[in-house]
Design a protein that fits this description.
Blueprint (H helix, E strand, L loop, with lengths): L6 H8 L2 H23 L31 H37 L1 H16 L2 H11 L3 H12 L2 H14 L3 H8 L4 H9 L4 H24 L11 H12 L8 H25 L6
Protein name: ABC transporter permease
InterPro entries: BP-dependent_transpt_permease (IPR050366), MetI-like (IPR000515), MetI-like_sf (IPR035906), OppC_N (IPR025966)
Family: Belongs to the binding-protein-dependent transport system permease family.
């Protein structure tokens, strides 16, 4: 997607060193989580009680956990789930919010009023609370987490896209389309959404970061993906007690991974927002 941006946009993004650093960090983590297991192969399904709680060393670069899993391999495995769930949930939330906001803003009147009151009511309920309740009732798994996160996280993108739509629907090219008999769907699909791409792209990056954090929160409380599967939040939860015994390698690596990835997505979002901001350029 980034490679398809116009050259001036690429140049503006590249001038933001923090955003470029975030892109590099994200790329390295993608390599680490998806290519790393092909190079550093470990068994993350079966336990090995003869290898429990080993300190970092030659055989296990980041030591082992309480059931003998190699911690470096588990960091890769957990990161793959965290990134996949976060990316999928963030994109799903953005798609739902984009369609909802575009329809509400374009329709206007009582339709807009009703749809946005639904959004206001949803924002009043913390997404984490809803996620915890649903996770406590069911065992969602990775796909279930994607669905739940997408359903509870689309509210903010919908408001952003609605605001953009309210501006765009009064433009001459939209009014001309309607005057010659163009349908509402064509107006939204051919004019409103393509001209809202900057808002949508920036919203998606922040939604992905929020989704990764929400997955970590839920897994930390033991309500995320269940063993033998894990994610970075689950690794934090499993290693918390051991950290008090000096086994820092069980909690520091996943904690740093979450911080770095979330900061990377936020930095990329800030960089994209500045690059798209034509009015703010000198």
């Amino acid at each position: 997607m980034f490679a398809q941006f116009p050259a001036p946009l690429n140049a503006r993004f590249a001038r933001n060193r923090l955003a470029v650093a975030g892109l590099v960090v994200l790329f390295l983590f993608l390599l680490f989580c998806f290519v790393g297991p092909l190079v550093y192969s470990t068994d993350q399904t079966h336990t090995d009680l003869s290898q429990v709680n080993l300190a970092p060393g030659g055989a296990h670069w980041l030591g082992t956990d309480a059931v003998g899993h190699d911690q470096l391999g588990r960091l890769m495995y957990g990161g793959k789930i965290s990134l996949l769930v976060g990316l999928a949930a963030g994109l799903l939330a953005t798609v739902i919010g984009t369609l909802w906001g575009a329809i509400a803003g374009y329709a206007g009147g009582w339709v807009d009023a009703v749809m946005m009151r639904v959004v206001d009511a949803g924002i009043a309920i913390p997404a984490l609370f809803i996620l915890l309740v649903v996770s406590a009732i069911t065992d969602p798994g990775p796909l279930g987490l994607v669905g739940i996160l997408g359903v509870v996280s689309w509210l903010v993108p919908s408001r952003l896209v609605r605001a953009e739509t309210l501006t765009l629907k009064s433009r001459d090219y939209v009014l001309t389309l309607r005057a010659i008999g163009g349908t509402h769907g064509r107006a939204i699909g051919r004019h409103i959404l393509p001209n809202s791409v900057s808002t949508i792209v920036v919203a998606a990056t922040f939604q992905i970061a929020d989704a990764i954090l929400l997955v970590a929160y839920v897994s930390y409380l033991g309500l995320g993906v269940q063993p033998p599967a894990t994610d970075w939040g689950g690794m934090l939860s499993a290693g918390l007690t051991a950290a008090y015994s000096g086994r820092w390698w069980l909690i520091v690596p996943p904690g740093l991974a979450i911080i770095l990835v979330v900061c990377a997505f936020n930095a990329i979002g800030d960089g994209l927002r500045d690059a798209f901001d034509v009015k703010g350029r000198a």
